[in-house]
Amino acid sequence: MNRERQITIECLSLFDPPPDLKVWEWAEKYRRLGKDVTAIPGRYSVDATPYQREPQDSFTDPEVQVTVMQWASRLGKTETMNNLEGFTIDVNPRGILVVYPTLDSAKKWSKEFFVPMVKATPRLQGKIKESRARDANNTILSKQFPGGKISAIGANSPSGFRQIQAPVVICDEIDAMDNGAEGDPIALAFKRADNYRDSVQVLSSTPTVKGASRIESWMDKSDKRHWFCPCPECGEFQVLNWSQVEIPEGKPEEARIKCQHCEARLDDEQRVTMVRAGEWRATAPFSGVRGYWLNGLNTLFPAKKGFRNKLHQMAAEAAEAKASGEAAMQVWTNTFLAESYEPPAEKVEANSLLERCEVYGGDDENAPMLPRYVLALVASVDVQGDRLECYVEGYGLKDECWAIEYRRIIGDPTRDEVWAQLDTLLETAYAHPCGGVLKIGRVCIDSGFKTDRVFDFVRRRQPRVVAIKGASARGALPFQVSPKPNKQGCRLYLLGTDTLKDLIFSRLRLAEPGPRYLHWPKGFGFDDKYFDQLTSEQRRAELRDGFPRYVWFLPPGKRNEGLDLKVYSVAAWEIFKYHMRPNMEKLAAEMEARAAEPREGGEQQKKPAPAKEYQLKPHVEPKPEQEKPKPRAFVPRRKGGFVGGWK
Questions:
Q1: Helix or strand or coil: residue 489?
Q2: More confident residue, 104 or 624
Q3: CB under 8 Å to 95, separation ≥6 — which residues?
Q4: Coil, helix or strand at residue 327
Q5: Which of the four pLDDT bands, split at 50, 70 and 90, describes residue 244?
Q6: In angstroms, rounded to a whole number, what is the distance separating the alpha carbons of residues 434 and 613?
Q7: Angle between helices 77-90 and 23-30 (to 10 degrees)
Q8: Neighbours of 418 (CB within 10 A)
């Protein structure tokens, strides 16, 4: 009878409503933390880290669409998200999607955080089985439970987003995610929850580089909540910032925090008291996105051995980062201050280039004359939605460069007459002061926009006109050519744009005319707008995979067509000069001799009479003579084949 009663009670319990618990209340009731995941093992208690309470309430708040957590490292943001996952599996079972930057990081999360949580939480053990090789429902990245499924994917695998419907979407370390072929991984992840009215969407990360930080961009959309702590001396609330930390020179163990109001010097115990008594306060209007920002000064975890207290450890680590250079400072700023890092940018001022423009060329802007030391011409073309932009420049010995003209052909690039105008421009013969004319020897056209029209134009003009496409891989060669023509019959040149930009900006800093120096004329399209575009990008260091890497960054609101055209023209010269270099010195000597020849009447003519066209011919190495092969000795063939020999 007792057995029947027990079975009846168990069956009826299946119809019980889910417990009315908040996320953190569920965690306090059921979760246990092991030594392998936290410095404070044992029963989970939100009182140990009170700043974790409100963000967990935000996860299930019906007014909150997205919860954003821009926290320093090791403050427990991963555990708050683990609480949400465990709560969903146990109390409100449904689909969960967890997104990490890569598949490897997703597997690491599963092995080091999720699986240990399940093993340490008896409430979950019976609902999620261990991973099995032959069980598609329970793998490292996909685990099924009654009423739902939790899937972990890498943002670098766009196909992983497909065929997943999940009302709970958690994206961690979003600043380490890159846009894929299908766009922004955050937008792709949130699309998985589109059909659910009560969806939960969480974003978490430490920031990276200023202006390129995803988490900082989302924080700007939020109500920007900060942890306000009361001073134990005066009771005034304030947000703890590193500027308040005072460190006596050479004595990090005596570091103190200065109150913003009463200027009391507070030790580490008083700091801990402040943090425990803190509260979240919004600093911006709420519009559906709730954001929480928290730096490392708010940590309540103990100091490492060798330090008197946590404040001593913070001061020592800050001094070590400052002494270790740029990369270490970025790590400290991102992971401790929870702020995006703004490295010192390498930039050339546009005004300095505009002021050094020279007077050369002819009086007629429609037919500019070349400087006397120009020996070859190249051009670059950029395709825009309503125009073609064309840049022509000349080169002399040792890569000294003179800009010639910058023109815009206004019109729809899909129309034939626009390309006909470009063809006419590229066939221009430029008068040379030493006599004769030069024509453009090589042209690079960007194929990233209106690709079919570009290939159609290039195909009939190869190899003088080539199609190019930029690639920003660090350390790439200035250009690489495809081994075979594409379907449109064009060989595509891939440009190492970062390499070419490094080269250009190193030459922009040269102050004296000579090898590799860059000249610009006054007029001919080179105005202040052009130089603003030429210098629009900045080079700065950022951390990638734990190593510093210099990248080119375009600030918001800037245009860079002028720089793109310069990159393409330098590539055109790099492609062209390998054929022309053997003839350059000979041609330079010929032009100097021609310029020194006396004219009729014993005077030099100011304007040259076009005598002949100085179109450089490609240098072709002579093929080595090969010995003629000796005639083979005559060997009579046997009649019949293999079978016939057996007859």
A1: coil
A2: 104
A3: 148, 149, 150, 151, 164, 165, 166, 167, 168
A4: helix
A5: very high
A6: 11
A7: 90
A8: 19
- What token pair was written down for 46? 């939100």
Whole-angstrom distance, CA of residue 115 vs CA of residue 128 = 9
Could you tell me if 66 and 33 are in contact, meaning their C-beta atoms sit under 8 angstroms apart?
no
Nearest in space to 611 (alpha carbons), one of 627, 630, 595, 625 = 595
Residue 480 pLDDT level (bands cut at 50, 70, 90):
confident
Which tokens hold the place of 567?
């990159």
Q: Band the pLDDT of 644: cuts 50, 70, 90.
A: very low
Token output for 93: 């079972």
d(CA 590, CA 584): 10
Report phi then psi at 88, rounded to 5: -65, -45
Contact 401, 519 (CB under 8 A): yes
What is the value of pTM for the model shown?
A: 0.61
The residue to which tokens 């019949």 are assigned = 640
pLDDT band at 349 (very low <50, low <70, confident <90, very high): confident
The rounded Cα 284 to chain-centroid distance in angstroms is 29
> What tokens appear for 24 in the block?
């953190």
Tokens read off for 123: 């409430």
Q: What are the contacts of 145-150 at 24+ separation with CB within 8 A?
A: 145/89, 145/93, 146/93, 147/93, 147/94, 148/88, 148/89, 148/93, 148/94, 148/95, 148/96, 149/95, 149/96, 150/85, 150/89, 150/95, 150/96, 150/97, 150/98, 150/114
* DSSP class of 629: P
The phi-psi region of residue 556 (left if phi > 0; otherwise alpha if psi is between -120 and 50; otherwise beta) is beta
What is the pairing mode between strands 289-294 and 66-71?
Answer: parallel
Whether residue 612 has pLDDT greater than 50: no
71 close to 294: Cβ distance less than 8 angstroms: yes
Do residues 141 and 153 lie in contact, with contact meaning Cβ atoms separated by under 8 Å? yes
In terms of Cα–Cα distance, which of 462, 461, 364 is closest to 420?
461
Confidence category of residue 603, pLDDT binned at 50, 70, 90: very low
Token pair of 514 as six digits: 């000579």
Tell me phi and psi for residue 125, to 5 degrees. -60, -40
DSSP letters spanning 11-74: HHHTTSPPP---HHHHHHHH-EE-TTT-SS-EE--GGGSGGGHHHHHHHT-TT-SEEEEEE-TT
pLDDT at 37 over 60: yes
The whole-number pLDDT of residue 641 equals 43
H or E element in which residue 501 lies: helix 497-508
Which pLDDT belongs to residue 621?
44
Answer whether residue 435 shows pLDDT above 70: yes
Q: Which amino acid is at 5?
A: R
Lookup: tokens for 476: 């790439």
Amino acid at 231: C
3-state SS, residue 388: strand
**DSSP states along 192-235:** TTTT-TT-EEEEEE---BTTS-HHHHHHHHS--EEEEEE-TTT-
Residue 90 has pLDDT above 70, yes or no: yes
Q: How far apart are CA 194 and CA 167, in angstroms?
A: 8
- State the Cα–Cα distance between residues 536 and 17, nearest whole angstrom: 61
For residue 257, the number of C-alpha atoms closer than 13 Å in the C-beta half-sphere is: 29
